[in-house]
Amino acid sequence: MKLGEIQRGEREASAIDLAPLIDMIFILLIFFMVSAKFTEELAIDIERPGAASGEAADTRTLRVLVDAQANVFVDGQPVPLWMVRTRVADALARAPQRPVLVAADKRVETGTLVQVIDGCRRGGAKDVGLDVEKP
């Protein structure tokens, strides 16, 4: 064996193939994209009433929205007013200690708001809050 052949063989052995590494990075990227839970904001226009005593809500809350036309949405799904209790109960069956946050437009009638909060409480919610805007 000649000296030049040994040096060439050593250089070839010391080279690192990056193709498997790049493949692994793409596999991990696809895994994280598929397994990530994306939160999407609803395109519901709500003018919340203001309150100086408002506090930040927990991110795990079950959101119940009531728009200006008294349409009710539980976790982003439209729900008739009479079904709020059932939908809240179904959502809380998986996490019974999950707080409920009601976000109602300031033009919603008080009677409708009371019915929604009552439906949440009768559905098993122990902690029901009202979403307000800090001035």
Fraction in beta strands: 5-15%
Using only C-alpha atoms, the radius of gyration works out to 27 Å
Q: What sequence of helices (H) and strands (E) makes up the elements?
A: HHEEEHEHE
- The CATH class label of the largest domain is Alpha Beta
Total of domains: 2
* Overall helicity: 25-40%
**Helix-strand makeup class:** alpha/beta
What does this structure look like?
This protein has helices spanning 3-14, 19-35, 84-94, 110-122; strands at 62-66, 72-74, 77-79, 100-104, 128-130. It folds into 2 domains: 3-35; 62-130, 2-Layer Sandwich (Nucleotidyltransferase, domain 5), CATH 3.30.420. A hairpin with a 2-residue loop joins strand 2 (72-74) and strand 3. The chain is elongated, with a radius of gyration of 27 Å. The chain is an alpha/beta fold and 135 residues long. Strands 3-2-1-4-5 form a 5-stranded mixed beta sheet, covered by helices on one side. Helix 3 runs parallel beside helix 4. The model has no long low-confidence stretch (mean pLDDT 78). 39% of the residues lie in helices and 14% in strands. The longest helix is centred in the first third of the chain and has 17 residues, at 19-35.
